[in-house]
Design a protein that fits this description.
Keywords: Signal. The protein has 196 residues and is mainly beta. The protein is built from one helix and nine strands. An eight-stranded antiparallel barrel has the order 1-2-3-4-5-7-8-9.
Length: 196
């Protein structure tokens, strides 16, 4: 009788252990932020000393989809303004972007590459002139992503931008290549796919 009682107590434990061993292991919520099928939206900005003028700000908006775990493809928009007093220029650009999150941890490094097609407008007192045609630039950005919650992350990044521009005075034109660097701080928000 005592043996039957032991069997009755052990049988449910064995069944539960077998069922739980067949289930997928539970992962920490932060590690699911970069799963395939998720969407991520990012806003970044920064300020530094300008190259042509004294002040330079930039703001960047990204939207992308994780086509594989940790690999996001999307579009990026970049606004840049450089000025001193009332003189300066502003640039508005957009283009494709690829973003790779290196780890799945709460503090995770990343690298990002985008290619921008840009319009640049020069301003000075009484004069506003838009440069002809579309300008181009490539932006390489390593950074660090810090999880504030499973959906919301803070970002610190450092951008290296390479520009190719055609400058014209109305009579002649010449190509100009420029290099810019800009530190940025941002926030990213992840919309997770529904899990069955």
């Amino acid at each position: 009788m005592k043996n039957v009682l032991y069997l009755c107590l052990l049988l449910p434990c064995c069944v539960n252990a077998q069922a739980s061993s067949q289930q997928e292991p539970i992962r920490p919520a932060f590690s699911q932020s970069f799963d395939r099928g998720n969407w991520q939206f990012t806003a970044r900005g920064g300020y530094l000393r300008g190259i042509l003028f004294r002040n330079r700000i930039n703001a960047q908006l990204n939207a992308g989809y994780f086509v594989a775990d940790k690999l996001l493809l999307g579009v990026s928009g970049l606004y840049t303004r450089e000025w001193f007093g009332k003189a300066g220029y502003q640039t508005l650009g957009a283009g494709p972007m690829v973003h790779w999150q290196i780890t799945r941890t709460r503090v995770s490094p990343f690298v990002e590459l985008s290619y921008q097609f840009e319009r640049r407008t020069l301003t000075s007192p009484g004069v506003t002139r838009q440069e002809p045609g579309l300008q181009r630039s490539a932006l390489f950005m390593p950074g660090l992503s810090i999880g504030l919650s499973p959906a919301l992350r803070a970002e610190l990044s450092y951008g290296f931008q390479y520009n190719v521009r055609t400058l014209s005075d109305g009579f002649s034109s010449r190509r100009y290549k420029g290099y810019y660097i800009h530190p940025q701080f941002g926030l990213s928000y992840t919309v997770a796919r529904k899990r069955g």
